[in-house]
Amino acid sequence: MPTPSLASLPIRRLTLRDLNACADLSEDRGWPREEHKWGLLLTAGKGYGIDDPGGGLVAACVVTEYGPREQPALAAVGMVLVAGRHARRGVGRRLMRHIVSAMGATPLTLHATSCGRPLYEELGFKVIGRAEMLRGRFVPTGDRPEVATRAATAEDLPEVARLDEEVFGADRTPIVTRLPAFADHLRVAEENGRIIGYAAAWPNMETHVVGPLIARDTTTAEALLASLAARTDRPLRTDIDVRHEELLSWAKAHGLASVTSNAVMAYGITELPGDRNRRFAPVTVAAA
Ligand SMILES: CC(C)(COP(=O)(O)OP(=O)(O)OC[C@H]1O[C@@H](n2cnc3c(N)ncnc32)[C@H](O)[C@@H]1OP(=O)(O)O)[C@@H](O)C(=O)NCCC(=O)NCCS
């Protein structure tokens, strides 16, 4: 039987059953397997992929939609991967064109690696910002945090979801409702009985990723980050919007180091919705 051409292989929706094949694909491109993250994205978002007749996946990506189901306000694209053996043969372009057309009028956003950026630019995505990836063991200074934090309880979830929607600019219920199970720690910052910020730390390979990180101001963001760091022995990773210079300097003074920075890109909008002053870090760069 002749080998079918790459261009004729169908693009299909991925499910949680594809988790292992997705992790294999990550590994194929030298990325960590990140099964826990794939699990979140394949359930909270929609996976798209192409089966390899020889086994495994030729390509994959995930799209997480936010806002009303019938007309999402925003969709985040992530984990765009093409198996190394099929690279540079137009598969990435075909998969991304499929996503752009499947999402119709919904504005799109993504964090682009330098490898993916030329393709997104060709499709009409524009750079609208940058996020700096920080990693390392947090070194506490022993100062008493100026803002009180505590573990979130089930009763906090409606208020957390309301604050998240206000700051993110779209309803992120599919992510927020999964955080208590997905994250190892979910904490809120409070002032006079009102929640003024929240953050999660979730396990990813040997690190704990801090995100989302939403806070009224830098001091609140620092208190949340420090309180999460105090509850893990693992190195932290977080991706902070470069406009939050104060938080970046503070984190670097506490042991985190810059690994790289990714371009934040958008299609169909020139700025993300919501309040960027209170939005410090995404849940993951793959889901915004
Ligand atoms: C980025 C990626 C998905 C592209 O998939 P692909 O199927 O190899 O790309 P295509 O063949 O469709 O190429 C489309 C265009 O992207 C650009 N491009 C793709 N790979 C590139 C590379 N290694 N360096 C520079 N430009 C590249 C080129 O402009 C290319 O067009 P051309 O071949 O006509 O010059 C793939 O390289 C990959 O999986 N990379 C590792 C994971 C990653 O970084 N993903 C992006 C996350 S944001």
TrEMBL record:
PROSITE patterns attached here? Answer: GNAT (PS51186)
SUPFAM superfamilies, alphabetized: Acyl-CoA N-acyltransferases (Nat)
Q: Decide whether keyword Cytoplasm is in the record.
A: no
Show the GO MF annotations. Answer: acyltransferase activity
Q: What is the main EC category here?
A: transferase
Q: Which residues form the N-acetyltransferase domain?
A: 9-146
Q: What is this protein called?
A: GNAT family N-acetyltransferase
Answer yes or no on keyword Cell inner membrane: no
Give one Pfam family, short name only.
Acetyltransf_7
- Keywords, ordered alphabetically: Acyltransferase, Transferase
This entry's Enzyme Commission designation comes to 2.3.1.-
